[in-house]
Amino acid sequence: MKRALIKILFSIILLLSNVLLASCSNNNNTDKSKKEYQIYYIDSKSYGIVSEGYVPKGNTKEQLVKELLEVLQKEPSNMIYRKAIPEGVSIIDYNIVDEQLIINFDTKYGELKGIPEVLCRATVVKTMCQIPGIDFVLFNVNNQPLIDSNGVQIGLMTAEFFIENTAAETNYKVTLYFANETGDLLRKTTRTIFYTGTSSIEELVINQIINGPTEVGLYATIPAGTTLLNVSTKESICYVDFNEKFLEKLPDVTDEVAIYSIVNSLVELPGINKVQFRINGQPAETFHNTNLGVLFERNLAINEDNQ
């Protein structure tokens, strides 16, 4: 009787051991079979595209599309990268039709122009086309097909549609603000700059302000010798770091004109809503009679056009 009972118990233990081993084996196989995807971001230093590895939780095409689109709208862990879809731009809905992913953005997407718009498309398309069964991506804006600057419909895009470093040499139009002749208001001008991808658009814009105006009737807002030490954008805030020369300020220019010549010019760029100043890498405090240690937003009241 005892031998029979021991034999039964041994059989049960052996059976349970096999079940546990099989379960562990299945779990290990599942983990190993999980594919790593590349999530594409925008490098704020070079304005090119970069990627980071990501292992999704979903398995089906529908689950992967939903998950990766959510990741693309989140801030990357690397501080010098920007998320693919800029702040303020939202996805209304999306549709999967055979091998096509149709993404419908809100009207804010239509405000993206030039390099920022191309980079946004590149990061989204290159990320989504990794999903098995998604070979093409189509962008709509408020249910209308996306068109380029020449009025031509963009149409279906594949990952091969974009070269790895999308930020090729190109001309880029920016809006800049300089002082009027009395130094108490800002005057707007547009300028086309040659963009090579070696510096960020923010850096180019600020250096244009530092170099001063070339147009008649516009005047400098920043003293000679001012140097831009660093500039970066995170969560729609552009952090601008100058040397101490910036604090000297031109005598015939008001505090507001000096500050907002930079702020209003930067906020014209997509993805920037606020500006914070630093001096020699440290948080700025005062700028003559103005508190410089706050977040600055666009100030339309100081533009001469609005007087």
Give a written overview of the molecule:
The protein is α+β, with helices and mostly antiparallel strands. It folds into 2 domains: about 120 residues, no CATH class; about 140 residues, no CATH class. About 25% of the residues lie in helices and about 25% in strands. The chain is built from 5 helices and 16 strands.
Q: Characteristics of this structure?
A:
5 helices; alpha+beta; 307 residues; 2 domains; 4-stranded mixed β-sheet; elongated
* Number of separate helices: 5
- Residue stretches low in confidence (pLDDT < 50, at least 5 long) are 12-17, 19-32, 164-168
End-to-end C-alpha gap: 104 Å
State the oligomer: single chain
Q: Helicity range of the residues?
A: 25-40%
Mean pLDDT: 84
Order of helices and strands: HEEHEEEHEEEEHEEHEEEEE
Characterize the biggest β-sheet.
5 strands, mixed
Number of strands: 16
From the alpha carbons, calculate the radius of gyration and give it in angstroms: 27 Å
Strand content: 25-35%
- What form results from the Cα inertia axes? elongated
Number of folding domains? 2
Structural class estimated from helices and strands: alpha+beta
Topology:
Elements: H1 2-33, E1 37-43, E2 49-54, H2 61-72, E3 81-82, E4 91-97, E5 100-105, H3 114-128, E6 136-141, E7 144-145, E8 170-179, E9 186-195, H4 201-211, E10 228-234, E11 237-242, H5 255-267, E12 274-279, E13 282-283, E14 286-287, E15 290-291, E16 296-297
Parallel strand pairs: 5-6, 11-12
Antiparallel strand pairs: 1-2, 1-3, 4-5, 6-7, 8-9, 10-11, 12-13, 12-16, 14-15
Helix pairs in contact: 2-3, 4-5
